[in-house]
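Entry type: protein chain
Record version: 2
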Amino acid sequence: MAPLLVGGAATLSSFLFFMMLIESSFAFHIFPPFNSDTSRLGGGISTKVRRRNSRIISSITTLNAAVQEEEEAKPIRVGIAGCGSVAFGTASLLSQNGHDTMLFSPSGRSTPPITSNDNYDARASITSTGAITRTFQSRIASSVDQLVNQNDVILLALPANGHMSIMDALVPHITSRHVIIISSHSSLGGIYLCQQLLAKRNITIPIVAWGTTVVTARRSKSTNESSSDVNVCTIRSVVDMCTIPSHLSSTGWNVCNSLFGTEGNNCCRFQQRDGLLAISLSNLNAQNHLGIVLGNMSRMERHEQWSQGLNITPNIGRLLESLDQERMTIAKALRVDVRTIQEHFHLSFHVPMTSSISEMNSEMVKMGNDVNGPSTADTRYVTEDVPYGLVLIVNLGKLVNKPAVLHEAGIRIVGAMYGRDFWKENDLLNALKLIDVDDLDLDHDVATATNTCVEDLVEAGRTGILRKI
């Protein structure tokens, strides 16, 4: 029998229970006095009363099941830090799944137009097309404290070069009831956030790191930065994730599944990985974008509109495959299980898997899943992915004596193009006082030539605490 009292429905359940007893007019027959004459009841409770009892129990069971179902279907309030295309696409998927979103633009420049503002409850109308076609209302936050205080899950959906500043802004307001999702994780930022929360707030909460985003999305060509229109290109079928500290993994896993579903065409399945190193090495954006940038820089500088997938030609494809081999070699040395670039394209863009990345992109174009490449040199493909993606891969390669020579050459070539030292632009690695590639001596013992040994880093990727700082 289901419990009689469930959550907030306890009073209602009790009331209905006793009302049904009164209505029966035979309460004393349910539990007859010990010395009652029960011979007329056939030595026990009559069939009529048994049936009435059965109806009572059935009604209570049904009520409790309804209450439990209502609790499970209750929308989760999700605050999204970011107002870019991925933030809007993620909000659209969450809304489709019945959840209540709030968007926040840290700079304020990308805040969508407010459509209603009743009792300080500002909302904007978001329209998505493509893989998700819907128009929905999302709450809009005007400050970080509002974003945190009015939501239970906080999801970071902004470029990696904005992660540290938003993490610093979130820390004073986070409480033990919160779950934070980093979409997608970059440069061991989860360790930085975990340590800040412990040092400044003395709290430990689930911090979920994704290897990539749950959707790919683009703003419509005809819309400006503050528009509320977004085209959702794809919903990824599988996303790698981990939770730190690792003993809270079940909580992080359950939250992700509750938000994004486990069944149906528009759900995203989450694959748990062993720590942040696995997640960092599962993010292929930086290596893929490097090859695309090197092959199409003149198009970007001339602000051309060009097809990204169509221009991953055989030579560009082979470069991406060679970059991927470096990443896979480093992952193997660290005993980390990650997917190949072919598996990534297959799961992310739903194309048949072959050995040729160029062929897989051609197939993606035929399916209508292609997107335009960057139309400006001021693109996250460079300003985010080079310092926060490539630099970390190179440093991990140095740690395990598996130099990522193509990654390193790419950083230096792009740095020469832009006249910038991308090695020094990763504030997260600098804050954690991790390795500097120029300080490493491959002829020396690797463990002592670095500020942090491999074992410490692997453990920190599970616990969220880096011992040597």
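Comment: DSSP finds 19 helices and twelve strands in the chain.
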